[in-house]
Amino acid sequence: MNIKQDIIQRANHIFYFVIALALCIIVRLVSVQYFKKDLKGRFYSARVEETLIRRDTIPAMRGNIYANDGSLLATSLPTYVVGLDPTMAKPEYFDKKIDSLALLLSRIYRDRSVNDYKDDIVNARKHKRRYLLLNRRRVTFKERQEMLKWPFFRSSAKVAARGGVLRPYYERYHPYGQMAERTIGNLNAKTNRGLIGLEASFQPALAGKNAVGLVEVLSGGIRKPVEDGPDMTPEPGMDLYTTIDVNYQDMAESALRSALEKYNAAKGCVIVMEVATGEIRAMANLTKQGDGYVENFNHALADRTDPGSTFKLATMMALMEEKAISLDQLVATGNGSATYNGLGIHDASRAGHGTITARQVFEKSSNVGTHLLMRSYFYRRPDLYCQYLRQFHLTKSTGIHMKGEAVPVVRNPDMKGWSKVSLTSMSYGYEMQITPLQMLAFYNAVANDGHWVRPVIVKQIKLANEIIEDNKPYVAPEAICSPATIRKAQQLLRGVVVQGTAKHINNPYYAIAGKTGTAQKIVNGKYQVGKYYTSFIGYFPADNPKYSMVTVVDSPQGDNIDLLYAGAVAAPVFKTVADRIVAYDYSIHSPIKARSSSPRSTTGLMAGYADDLHTISSTLNIPNEPSTEGWVESASGGRWKSRTTRPDQVPDVRGLTLRDALFLLENRGFRVSVEGRGKVKDQSVSPGVGIEKTAGKAITLTLG
Asked: Which of 542, 536, 533, 452 is nearest to 495 (CA)?
């Protein structure tokens, strides 16, 4: 054998040896990973885990979202993963406390015995494992508070916890359930980022700043911080203080849901806004899903559609600004049908309205009348009409601080698709796409004497008690039109409710002003009779507006088409919500004239306990308070005098409430029977009689 062959042979031996060694290593790894279930296999697995260290993030606690009264709309509730570093405690402490810890773990988790927990912890300490996951179930904050008193978890100013680890994880929670769900929004389960609504719109502020540092990745994906420096302390997110009123939100949602269910409608929305500030008190959105309704799309903010007859207000205001019409001028609407450049124009009333005034054209919502008024002036000046729409803030989004607002599409002569009948269709609310919120902002400006206010839903952003951002109401610098036009527009809107298409929601208790809108839906490119988008937009009380509101019921169904118009469908929703708000908001009502505060009684007798009367007088701001203590009764001149209640005598309970009378008598051992209702008018045993003389201690009280 020559040298060359010898070298090749040795190389082959080395090659085969390396291959065999590699196969042995692979077999050993597979054996340890999949077949070694004994302690030795777990030891190797733990040793591998201890070497896996990398940079990781600890998520910050997400900020809260509050209603305008401080109620929580969304918050992050912590749950905790419970672990233990069994090597940290000293031997004498470990031996003394391990039994107590195992017992407590068995009690709280109720899944394993005391010995099982003890064996796991002892074995982990024996093999010097620096982290042991005690249970995969996360504990609540309340359970955590208890655990902080346990051995190994307990700490003080002088002694740190001896190995116990409670790592927080935050889960989003909505205390009011699905209320305003689309407005509040929700989070992506994987990234914990806001998907929609306020959660998405204010993601950077709510999210806070995560902590970044080195962690040890353990079995089950558990991450244990290797260091505990300032970088490992996350900064919590900021809190949003919204303008939503949970009571108004509930009123809006319940009224909307009832109407949608009644008419088996496809969807709908309600927005309640404060006139002077633009603060949104309620934003309800419901969509039919299966047999019920859910909040899965923000129709108020993003659902653009033909507004229908509610847009006629803009047309009338533009005509009045140009002094092109008088509200008392006559308009010959005939039988309610007309044709212009091949476009058929029809009124809802099949019989037509005949010759009516311009005011009645609006109140009765005549499409033909609106077309005739427009033809007399703006058909020769389409650019001027479109300029007024821009002046009314109808061609741009409102700029509300919330993602998802759709941009309105309002035609003008420079746009593609403009035709000879575009202006006609636009005059009564077609050939455009506008959201309910944008239309409400326009009507709100009319209620606000011509001053357009930007809608706002987040009033403040705070970090703890520090105000980071304060959203003051934005009022456009110029009025949308002249004061004279505003006054006439307000009269027109009030007329719709008094004698127009919404007269059935008029009531003697407070005044409503507004306009109905019924737009035909487009199906396969054509407007369909019987498929309607119904809405009502207005404000209340009309004589001193505080709230504006839009209600929408889309695609109501029913056998009688005449009962599917906005006046019958959307307007009642408006009134239902408005009724509840007026009953709830006492500031709307006129103050009650003050009455005499002197105590009066039809029986000539009033009595009570002085402390109770002090509380009542202080709360109701009544000046005549008792100057003495204990039990008192009324005297002449609105004064009070003491009433003797000796323990050895039958007390005088006349003039007292039944509760107070029972207190005095039952404490003296009397068996009390009652006749009638009201305050104590008479008692069967005379006051002042000695207790020992009352046989059986039975007494009857007559109320009146």
From this structure: 542
Cα–Cα–Cα angle for 95, 101, 106, rounded to 5 degrees: 135
Q: What is the pLDDT of residue 601?
A: 44
pLDDT for the residue numbered 506: 96
Q: What pLDDT is stored for residue 56 in this prediction?
A: 63
Q: At which residue do the structure tokens 């799309």 appear?
A: 297
Distances (CA, A) of 254 to 129, 270, 559, 564: 57, 10, 25, 20
Residues in the chain: 704
Q: Cβ(445)–Cβ(452) under 8 Å?
A: yes
pLDDT in tens, 108-123: 999 999 999 999 999 9
Do 681 and 654 touch, CB atoms closer than 8 A?
Answer: yes
Cα separation of 373 and 357, whole Å?
Answer: 11
Continuous segment of H or E residues that includes residue 535? strand 526-540
Say which residue the tokens 């008392």 belong to.
328
Answer yes or no: are the C-beta atoms of 266 and 272 closer than 8 Å.
no
Q: What is the spatial distance between Cα 237 and Cα 209, in angstroms, rounded to a whole number?
A: 7
DSSP state of 525: T
CA 402 – CA 400 distance, rounded (Å): 6
pLDDT at 235 over 50: yes
Q: Which pLDDT value is given to residue 220?
A: 45
pTM greater than 0.70 (yes/no): yes
- Check the CA dihedral 505-510-515-517 and report its sign: negative
CA dist., res. 656 & res. 678, Å (int): 9
Phi, psi of 164 (to 5 degrees): -70, 135
662, 649 contact by CB (below 8 A): no
d(CA 526, CA 665): 81
Return d(Cα 606, Cα 613) in angstroms, integer: 11
- Residue 483 has what pLDDT? 97
Phi and psi at 222, nearest 5°, equal -70, 135
Pull the structure tokens for residue 615: 């509380």
Give one DSSP letter per residue of 149-177, joined into a string.
TSTTT---SSS--SSEEEEEEEEEE-TTT
pLDDT of residue 438: 98
Give dist(CA 50, CA 130) in Å, integer: 8
Name the residue with tokens 């309607």.
532
Instruction: Give the mean model confidence (pLDDT) for residues 386-395.
Output: 97
Residue keyed to tokens 């821009």: 390
> Which amino acid appears at position 249 of this protein?
Q
The Cα–Cα gap between 263 and 64 comes to: 37
How far is CA 703 from each of CA 108, 607, 612, 675, 697, rounded to the nearest angstrom?
A: 56, 14, 21, 6, 19
Give the pLDDT mean for 181-195: 86
- Per-residue pLDDT tens digits for 490-529: 999 999 999 999 999 999 999 999 999 999 887 666 677 7
Mean pLDDT of the chain: 87
Contact 436, 550 (CB under 8 A): yes
Q: How crowded is residue 44: how many other Cβ atoms within 10 Å of its Cβ?
A: 15
CA distance 623 to 640: 12
Contact 640, 622 (CB under 8 A): no
C-alpha to C-alpha distance for 434 and 383, rounded to whole angstroms: 19
Q: What mean pLDDT is predicted for residues 61-79?
A: 91
Distance CA 341, CA 552 (A): 32
Residue ranges with strand state E in 175-298: 211-217, 223-225, 239-242, 267-274, 280-289, 292-294
Q: How many CB atoms lie within 10 A of CB 658?
A: 17
In 3-state terms, the chain is what percent helix, strand and coil (to 5)? 35, 25, 40
Strand, coil or helix: 241: strand
What pLDDT is recorded for position 603? 43
Residue 39 has what pLDDT? Answer: 47
Q: By the 8 A CB rule, do 492 and 316 touch?
A: yes
pLDDT tens for 329-340 read: 999 999 999 999
Of 383-387, 447-451, 521-525, 686-690, where does mean pLDDT reach its minimum? 521-525
